[in-house]
# Entry
Amino acid sequence: MTAALSRRAAIALATTVAVGGSRAAIARVGPESFAPLVKRVLPAVVNIGVIETQPQGDDPLSLLPPEIRRQFRGRLPEHRREVHASGSGFIIDPAGLIVTNTHVVGNADKIVVALLDGTELPAEVVGQDELTDIAVIRVKPAAALPSVSWGDSRSLEVGDWVVAAGNPFGLGGSVTAGIVSARGRDIGAGPFDDFLQIDAPINPGNSGGPLFDSDGLVVGITSAIYSPTGSSVGIGFAIPSELASHIVDALREKGHIERGWLGVSMADIRDRGVGIAEVTRSGPAGRAGLRPGDIVIAVNGQPVDDSRSLLRAIATIAPGQIARLTLRRQGRDMNLSVTVGRRPNSEG
# Structure
């Protein structure tokens, strides 16, 4: 299952490049074949089938006052239905750990993983993170499974070749190839958006599948498409491995993500830094003395240019740790140490 963005699809204009008064097509020569890479990595790509139980039809008690509904709740038969869906994933540990998307398995009552050779194994959720749409599930194989390794998405450049693998439309063991079209895309999916944009076709069923670089290393997790129809129009998005690998490590260890929190409202400004609009008095920033009107320039020496970068910088700091904020107050630069809090559920 692939999350289709609700935004209206854009119309792209194709142009040619004029060189020395004549038109010239610029092309990059690709590999002669992706076959050697595919043979090496495809056995570690899995299909994920899920069954969700959902209410069927309207709730006959929905029009009654809450106190009346509570009296009758459980006395009337509840009509429910099974919904079958599918997605993709990839094995990162021969012992049976698999990475996928939260929107693939997050509400599943039953998960079945199908390997390339047709073997089917029941799976359980190890941990999931809704804000980044990353989940880790586990199967218990009779023998060691083929696995793949993380690559470094930071080394990718726009124009580099990538290969997406997965289970589009239920057609298991499928691969597509393309290039990185852009980096750092914010598609409105969540506060930590930092997607790779790719033109390798991904479709419903590709969600949770791996994105490989030319060395066969996982540099992303395919997660969303930009489309008016729900099917590929050549614009897809993948969670970069730079983010995904750290989230997966935390989910393997704890089953959930603990994120840092300041307790402020932020506003992007034209100048360098991030403006502080409001400060929760009882929050970490309020206790440390941060004020509305302050401009945060850096966190632990790393510059922050907008609200999103400040949010991500603080979120990566473990609750209870110290964050050293460099800020500008009334025209003067200063440092302020804040003991980072734990991000509340209501804050994401």
Summary: The chain has a mean pLDDT of 85. The chain has two domains: 1-23+30-257, 260-347. The first strand starts at residue 3 and ends at 4. Residues 301 and 326 are 7 Å apart (CA to CA).
